[in-house]
């Protein structure tokens, strides 16, 4: 099983959106038994809170299934559990490395790097533009899936 963890600041907007969008793509490709996906926060600010309603609205508008969940924080041991720890922006990458150490196994990536871009998924908590974030995450997840299919011959 390939294990993927999406990470953002609060784990109530971007990383759960990525989790559900990617899970949807896995099921469409019949890869849900080969790839496991989760999401976590770098901050404890929102721990225990549900996915933000504006993130739910945009998932619903694109017919992406989602389930009730509570925000959890990334821990040092997650570095051993997961094969890919994928942040949404450069600040996430900084905090993932702070929590997990020096990424000696090259597991830490920024999502849009799979699209050969150094861009961040901007934080919708501040921009309010959940549609743009959805499009960016969708693009990143599509590229990630293509990468994994190629890497593991799936
Ligand atoms: P997320 O968005 O990192 O995409 O889940 C945020 C959610 C909450 C906060 C910041 C960003 N906050 O400061 O509480």
Gist?
This protein is of the alpha/beta class and about 150 residues long.
List keywords for this structure.
154 residues; Rossmann fold; binds 4-nitrophenyl phosphate; four-stranded parallel β-sheet; single chain
Structure description:
The chain is built from 6 helices and 4 strands, in the order βαβααβαβαα. It has 154 residues and is α/β, with parallel strands linked by helices. The protein has a single domain, classed as Rossmann fold, CATH 3.40.50.2300. It has a 4-stranded parallel β-sheet with strand order 2-1-3-4, with helices on both faces. Helix 1 links the parallel strand 1 and strand 2. Helix 1 packs across helix 6. The protein is globular and about 35 Å long. The protein binds 4-nitrophenyl phosphate. 4-nitrophenyl phosphate binds next to loops.
In which order are the strands of the major sheet placed? 2-1-3-4
Number of helices: 6
* Class per helix and strand makeup: alpha/beta
- Average pLDDT number: 98
How many strands? Answer: 4
CATH topology: Rossmann fold
User: How would a crystallographer describe the biggest sheet?
Assistant: 4 strands, parallel
In percent terms, what proportion of residues is strand?
A: 5-15%
CATH architecture: 3-Layer(aba) Sandwich
- What is the CATH first-level class name? Alpha Beta
What count of structural domains?
1
Q: Helix share of residues?
A: 40-55%
Report the principal-axis shape: globular
Can you list the ligands bound to this structure? 4-nitrophenyl phosphate
The CATH homologous superfamily is named Response regulator
